[in-house]
């Protein structure tokens, strides 16, 4: 697996380059640890994709979050293997669930449903591995990351998404990189006040296209900005 796309929002690239280059490099290595034979193991009953082995969010999450970010690089992670046990076992690995307190922030102490978590956290760099429903993409960028900023837990948010190429070989309803980039670029200017915009980097991953040049991110990144009504 390779990082095939990257965009910057709210000063994300500048923040990454100045403060979180080590964390970014570790995340890239974790993503690249996924091999096709460990990813395309999901059996499907969807009529439109019958007979295909689809990309498994469970194995990708396990490899990136547990084996790499947590075990190899010492990140705090919040990951549950419950729904994907069979696919993780399919590639000969042991499903593990980890809930690290550093990935949790409560809105108020003792509030039962107030807990918020991110998938990975290190040195105030938050990562969401979003291989799920498309509605969660924009929520992560405009709500969850902002929640962590208000609790002084985040300096940069990184959203990891399948590219449009990869999502063709996943279950239906999964969001993808190009979709999030388009959604953010079409937000009105004042949808989120400038003082509350979190530095965010969006990453698209897949197998079919070559990796971006990580040594020249300025040339690779698409700078996404909110637009005004007059732009339409």
UniProtKB/TrEMBL annotation:
Q: Which UniProt keywords apply?
A: Endonuclease, Hydrolase, Nuclease
**InterPro entries per the UniProt record, alphabetical:** BamHI/BglII/BstY, BglII-like, Restrct_endonuc-II-like
One GO biological-process annotation of the entry reads: DNA restriction-modification system
Alphabetically, the GO molecular function entries are:
DNA binding; magnesium ion binding; type II site-specific deoxyribonuclease activity
What is the protein name stated in its UniProt record? Restriction endonuclease BglII
Recorded source organism is: Haloferax mucosum ATCC BAA-1512
């Amino acid at each position: 697996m390779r990082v095939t796309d990257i965009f910057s929002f709210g000063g994300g690239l500048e923040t990454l380059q100045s403060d979180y280059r080590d964390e970014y490099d570790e995340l890239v290595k974790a993503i690249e640890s996924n091999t096709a034979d460990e990813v395309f193991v999901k059996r499907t009953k969807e009529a439109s994709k019958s007979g295909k082995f689809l990309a498994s969010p469970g194995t990708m999450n396990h490899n990136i979050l547990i084996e790499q970010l947590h075990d190899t690089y010492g990140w705090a992670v919040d990951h549950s293997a419950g729904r994907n046990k069979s696919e993780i076992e399919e590639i000969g690995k042991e499903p593990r669930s980890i809930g690290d307190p550093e990935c949790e922030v409560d809105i108020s102490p003792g509030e039962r449903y107030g807990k918020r978590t991110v998938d990975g956290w290190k040195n105030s760099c938050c990562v969401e591995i979003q291989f799920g429903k498309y509605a969660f993409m924009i929520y992560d960028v405009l709500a969850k990351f902002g929640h962590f900023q208000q609790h002084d837990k985040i300096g940069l948010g990184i959203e990891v998404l399948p590219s449009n190429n990869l999502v063709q070989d996943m279950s239906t309803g999964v969001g993808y990189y190009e979709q999030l980039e388009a959604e953010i670029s079409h937000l009105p200017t004042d949808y989120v006040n400038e003082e509350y915009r979190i530095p965010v980097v969006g990453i698209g991953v897949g197998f079919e296209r070559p990796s971006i040049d990580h040594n020249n991110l300025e040339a690779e990144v698409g700078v996404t900005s909110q637009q005004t009504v007059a732009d339409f």
